[in-house]
Each structure stands twice: as structure tokens, then as C-alpha cells.
Design goal:
Blueprint (H helix, E strand, L loop, with lengths): L2 H7 L1 H7 L19 H11 L22 H15 L2 H12 L5 H23 L1 H5 L3 H4 L1 H4 L4 H30 L6 H18 L1 H26 L13 H20 L18 H28 L5 H9 L1 H7 L5 H32 L2 H5 L2 H19 L3 H30 L20 H17 L21 H24 L2
Helix pairs in contact: 1-12, 4-12, 4-14, 5-13, 5-14, 6-13, 6-14, 10-11, 10-16, 10-17, 10-19, 10-20, 11-17, 11-19, 12-17, 13-20, 15-16, 17-19, 20-21, 20-22, 21-22
């Protein structure tokens, strides 16, 4: 039986064992949030809709999981392949030649190895979902403590809203280009946001089915784009600048390409909570890694190729002056109406990237506290979609600035967070079992003092090494003529050095 069938077949079980408890109380507190009975009845009617996931952040108990199967493992790879074989990730590849002035080979190598490293980080974080039955930001409580983990939760919501914004802009740009400018970018943004909202509201069963098949048309039109635009790629394009400056730009672009797949790390366990506890960790890691790496490498290289051909193709240059979405559509030049049809498919492909992020951001809002938990997941989904819709409308003419600043900045904190998880796992919890049932018990969870201090120290390292349009750290300016983005590397280094001694003292003093 396929994973999608497992998900659908379990919808009734989910509703019977876990409908939303609107009179929310903390396990360690007698505080109860009263909810009007009228709202309860209205909520019950909505949750009774076929296919709608009623569960919020409550742990999925072992008896509620689905049996593992070959197709269930394949679904892991397909989820990530569908979600990232998209135009927004193709646009990342454009930045190598266009923003960092790197040649074709340099850009290609940085994008491939950056995608591989970032995907490996996310694949590691994905193993916790099946083990625990908890969402990623609930799992974070076991490594950062109940209260400090909320910082990571807020930042993760920001990431998902940011990517939702980028997806809507890219989709809107392509649809506008397909219409020859008759449809504004804003109308395209509305269409992408609307479809993303419909699927994300229904929850994990529906979006797993969507992701299972979304890659098929995307892969077809991307292969067509390779055949149409590939002959115009300029593989002889060389990097610009002296050797030191080129090295600095390589590091910056590599870090940016790493930041994109690694941004999924703080949500990757969310989609595996219905897999059994006995699911093999290395299989989860490899299937997640393969789905992420294949999709990112493919579209990143395609983006590099398109960018390399701008200087030698006037029509591409003119299209790029309009928008990156228009440049992608220009890659289908010569295919006439069929090329525009392919452009429409590409534009709606970003929805597959939008859905998981929207789903995880809504769960994150519930993780923030008992008041957030009292609001149904589907309501938070509506709120998240509204936020990134407004942001996309406001930022639709500033896509590259959002990419180069937002993506790298978000990569800083995720890598700092993963560094803490990795050291806690391998140094302090090696061979020790987690009590995953204590996900809301503040008396059992770590205090998080060591994690909080190490997290802040890591951010200090990231700040002195970051290179953004609005701020350049003093250490970043020491590399090359124009500087390099060292934020991720300094942030991780500061965290890895700081956390172990602090955690040792915390355990010695408090025992948890």
C-alpha cells in the first residue's frame, strides 16, 4: 500500500484519537483557556471535512503510525524532489554569475557542493520525526530547552513566510511574462497563494498526495527548458576579479547555495511523524538526502546556465531586465505557444515548494505557547498565507535583494541550531533514550541555559562575519577586495566551541 493511501486511510483514525482540544491547558499548569461553545461547534464541523487533518502539534503515538513499506520510503524522496524542483530554486543559480560575478564552472561547482552539504544537514534533522512522533520544533525542546527553543520556532516561521513570499513572486513574474505583461505580477501572486492555501489547509495527507505527483509535469518542462535553452549556455564564462576576490565570491555563493536546502532542517521532521518508530534512520537520511540533492543540483545548474547566457543573448538580457521570471520564460524562446504553456507549468510548480513551508509555519505558531495551540492549525494556515501574500505584493520588484539578504541570513541561525542538536546528540545523549512523551513537561526537558548562551554566542560570530547589503561584519571585510560572507562558518565555529563546556556545567549543576 502506498504512503499516500496510508495517509488517507488514517484520516478517520486521526480524527477519532486526536481532534483539537480547544480548552488548552499546559501539562504543568492548571491554567485553562476558555473557548466559546459556538466556536467549538463551528470548529468541529470544519474538522469533519473529509481529508482535513485535525491534529496539531500533539505527539503521534506509536499505535497511530502507519506500517513502513518500500513505497513509503520512496515517498520521502518524492516529497523533497517535488518540493524543490521549482523555479524559486532555479533562480538561486542565477545569482552565481549575476551577483557574485562567477564563471560557469565556479558557479556550477559551488551550487552542486553547496546543495549537497545543505541537503545532508536537513537529512540529519529529518531522522527525529519517526523516532519521536513529534514535530521538529517540539523536538527542539529536547536540545534547546522549553523556552529557548521558542526563539528557533519564531525564526523558523520567518523562514517559511520568507520562502512563501519568494515563491509567490517568482510564480507571479512567470505568469506575467507568459501573458506578455497583460497580467500583472500581483495577479499571479494571488493565484499561487490561493492554490497553496487550499492544499496546506487540508494538511499532511492531501499535501503528501500532491507532492507525490507534482514532480512529473515539473520534470518534463524542466527537461524541455534544458533542450530549448541549453545550446545558448556559455560554459566558457569566466569569473571576474583577482584570485582573492574570486575565492571570496566562491565562498559567499557556496554559503548561499548551502543556506537554501538547510533552511528545511528546522521543519524536516514534521512530515515523517506518521512513520513507525522502527523506521530505519539511515534509510530516512538517504531518501531525504537523495530527494533534496537531485532536485537542487538539477535546478541550480539550470539557473547557472541561464545566467551564463545573458551576456551573449540580447533577448535574454532584455528579459532579465524585466524580471528573473521573464528570463526563465525566455529560455523557451522558439517554442511559441507551447513555450508559454511550459512557463505556466513552471510558475505553478512553486506551489509544491510553498505547501510544506506553509504547513510547518502553521504548526510553529501552535508551538509558541498554549494560546497559539488553542487556535486550530487550519486557522494559522490562513494567517500565514495572508502574511506572505502581503509581503509578496510589497516586495515583488525586489526579488534579488530578498534572495541575497534573506536566504543567507536565515542560514546562519539554522546552522547554529543544528550544531547544538548535533553536539547534544553525539556528546551528551549518546546511547541514552529520549522520553518523547514528555514533550510538554518543563520539569523533564532541559533548562536550555547552555543552549541559549551558545546560540547567542553563535549569532555574535555570525554578525561579525556576515556580508549583507545593509551590514558587513568587520571580519567579512578582511576577505578579498569587497569582502565575503563568513556568517555561517563563524556562527557554527563559535557555537561548537561554546556549547560543550556550558552544557557540561549545566548537567553538573541541574542534572538535566
Amino acid at each position: 500500500m502506498s504512503a499516500a493511501v496510508h495517509q488517507t486511510a488514517s484520516s478517520d483514525l486521526e480524527k477519532s484519537v486526536q481532534t483539537l482540544d480547544l480548552d488548552v491547558s499546559d501539562e504543568n499548569s492548571s491554567t485553562i483557556i476558555p473557548v466559546p461553545s459556538r466556536f467549538k461547534k463551528w470548529n468541529a464541523k470544519i474538522e469533519s471535512l473529509a481529508g482535513l487533518e485535525a491534529r496539531g502539534i500533539t505527539r503521534v503515538r506509536p499505535e497511530e503510525r502507519h506500517a513502513a513499506s518500500l513505497l513509503a520510503y520512496v515517498q520521502m524522496a518524492l516529497l523533497w524532489f517535488s518540493a524543490n524542483l521549482t523555479a524559486n530554486n532555479l533562480a538561486v543559480g542565477l545569482l552565481g554569475p549575476l551577483v557574485f560575478h562567477l564563471g560557469f564552472v565556479d558557479s556550477a561547482l559551488c551550487s552542486v557542493f553547496g546543495a549537497l552539504v545543505g541537503s545532508a544537514v536537513t537529512a540529519y534533522m529529518s531522522i527525529w520525526g519517526a523516532q519521536s512522533g513529534n514535530r521538529t520544533m517540539i523536538v527542539a525542546r529536547y536540545f534547546m530547552g522549553y523556552w529557548p527553543s521558542k526563539i528557533a520556532c519564531v525564526l523558523n516561521i520567518v523562514i517559511m513566510v520568507g520562502y512563501g513570499t519568494i515563491d509567490c513572486i517568482i510564480g507571479g513574474q512567470i505568469l506575467s511574462a507568459v501573458s506578455g505583461g497583460r497580467m500583472t505580477i500581483a495577479v499571479g501572486i494571488i493565484l499561487v497563494a490561493l492554490v497553496s492555501w487550499v492544499v496546506a489547509v487540508f494538511g499532511i495527507a492531501v499535501f503528501h498526495i500532491y507532492e507525490r505527483w507534482a514532480w512529473v509535469p515539473q520534470l518534463m518542462v524542466v527537461f524541455i527548458l534544458v533542450g530549448s535553452a541549453g545550446p545558448k549556455f556559455d560554459s566558457s564564462l569566466q569569473s571576474v576579479g583577482n584570485p582573492t576576490t574570486v575565492d571570496a565570491n566562491r565562498l559567499s555563493f557556496f554559503s548561499l547555495c548551502l543556506s537554501v536546502p538547510v533552511s528545511w532542517a528546522a521543519a524536516s521532521s514534521d512530515y515523517y511523524v506518521y512513520y513507525p518508530e522502527t523506521t530505519t534512520k539511515w534509510k530516512i537520511f538517504l531518501m531525504t538526502l537523495s530527494g533534496l540533492t537531485l532536485s537542487f543540483v538539477f535546478v541550480n545548474l539550470l539557473g547557472v546556465g541561464l545566467a551564463s547566457g545573458i551576456s551573449s543573448n540580447p533577448s535574454w538580457s532584455d528579459a532579465h531586465d524585466i524580471s528573473s521570471g521573464a528570463l526563465i520564460l525566455a529560455g523557451y524562446d522558439g517554442l511559441e505557444g507551447f513555450g508559454k504553456f511550459c512557463g505556466v507549468i513552471v510558475s505553478f510548480g512553486v506551489i509544491a515548494n510553498n505547501i510544506p513551508g506553509t504547513y510547518s509555519a502553521a504548526l510553529g505558531c501552535q508551538v509558541l505557547g498554549r494560546y497559539g495551540k488553542a487556535v486550530p492549525r487550519y486557522v494559522w494556515t490562513c494567517f500565514i498565507v495572508l502574511i506572505y501574500f502581503v509581503c509578496a505584493i510589497a516586495g515583488r520588484d525586489h526579488l534579488f535583494e530578498i534572495f541575497t539578504n534573506f536566504l543567507a541570513l536565515m542560514g546562519y541561525w539554522v546552522m547554529i541550531f543544528v550544531s547544538i542538536v548535533l553536539e547534544e546528540h553525539l556528546i551528551f545523549r549518546r546511547g541514552l533514550a529520549f522520553d518523547w512523551t514528555a514533550w510538554e513537561n518543563k520539569k523533564v526537558l532541559p533548562l536550555g541555559i547552555a543552549a541559549l548562551i551558545a546560540f547567542l554566542v553563535g549569532w555574535a560570530g555570525a554578525i561579525v562575519g556576515m556580508y549583507q547589503l545593509w551590514y558587513v561584519g568587520p571580519l567579512a571585510m578582511m576577505v578579498g577586495d569587497a569582502g565575503a560572507d563568513l556568517g555561517i562558518w563563524l556562527g557554527v565555529s563559535f557555537t561548537l566551541i561554546t556549547f560543550p563546556p556550558l552544557r557540561y556545567l549545566e548537567l553538573k549543576k541541574f542534572g538535566r
